[in-house]
Design goal:
Layout lengths: L2 H14 L3 H24 L1 H4 L3 H6 L8 H33 L3 H4 L6 H33 L7 H20 L2 H10 L3 H20 L11 H6 L12 H24 L4
Helix pairs in contact: 1-7, 2-5, 2-7, 5-7, 5-8, 5-9, 5-10, 7-8, 7-12, 9-10, 9-12
Length: 263
């Protein structure tokens, strides 16, 4: 067993024995099912009665068809993905300090860079699984409630945009990992993930011209979903800034594990 395999085995064992993985699976499935039910209620307003909340959301649901549903599903993964992927990253990197097991990892016959790489691989695989799960359960929920205007071509095209948006969002989790290491816990990195989501919305409202250069806004610009206000498209500079943010977060995390005292 080489170094990376040993580190991946150790990280995978911790995930399998924890409740966090099952919680994320259940939560992601719940969100997708609720999106389908929301579309069903939109097509049958008599179910909602005089609900003020559903009445306020009615304009967002459009005609209650598949194009509208897919747009809502992408918006959900942009918002929940930023927080959900951030929580997964914070857990993978922060639990070593809250459980006081960081020093135990040093006993593995592998380099610290290999340990960091293994952790990021686990975050990647875990988050991609959640992304695929949300999309599949969402489509099944839409079919179950008989959303009209189904199109295989539209579904495949949406799947590409859905996965692309998720991957871009996931790349921005490396700074979350760095903050989990610096703070030696969960609170600061999860707070940072929520803060970036809120800040992105404020930038979109107040400084829309800055969005192509704000890395946390690039996933939304990539998928082209901007709500009622038209926003500038993402250019090559946008993706370069996003990738630079990702690499800086990875390098900072690796440097922390390499030079910081883990005892």
């Amino acid at each position: 067993m080489n170094g990376l395999s040993a580190a991946l085995w150790a990280e995978g064992l911790k995930v399998r024995r924890s409740k966090m993985f099952a919680v994320t699976i259940i939560f992601s499935s719940f969100i997708a099912v609720m999106m389908g039910l929301l579309m069903y209620v939109a097509r049958h307003p008599e179910i909602a009665g005089r609900s003020a909340a559903l009445t306020a959301k009615a304009p967002m649901l459009g005609n209650g068809d598949w194009p509208t549903f897919f747009e809502l599903l992408i918006q959900a993964i942009l918002a929940l993905g930023a927080i959900g992927f951030g929580m997964v990253t914070a857990w993978v990197f922060g639990r070593e300090y809250s459980d006081r097991t960081a020093k135990d990892l040093m006993a593995l016959p592998v380099s610290r860079l290999t340990i960091v790489s293994a952790k990021f691989v686990v975050v990647l695989v875990w988050s991609i699984q959640l992304t695929v799960l949300v999309f599949i359960v969402g489509v099944l929920a839409g079919l179950a409630v008989r959303i009209p205007d189904w199109s295989t071509e539209l579904t495949l095209r949406t799947a590409v945009v859905f996965m692309g948006s998720s991957v871009l969002t996931l790349l921005l989790c490396t700074p979350v990992a760095l903050l989990a290491c610096l703070s030696r816990g969960y609170l600061l990195p999860v707070g940072f993930a929520i803060f970036t989501l809120i800040l992105t919305n404020f930038v979109a409202i107040g400084l829309p011209g800055v969005l192509p250069y704000f890395p946390w806004a690039v996933p939304a610009l990539y998928c082209g979903i901007s709500g009622e206000t038209p926003l500038p498209p993402a250019g090559m500079a946008s993706y370069c800034i996003l990738l630079s943010t990702c690499m800086l977060g990875f390098a900072g995390t690796a440097a922390w594990w390499r030079f910081a005292d883990q005892t």
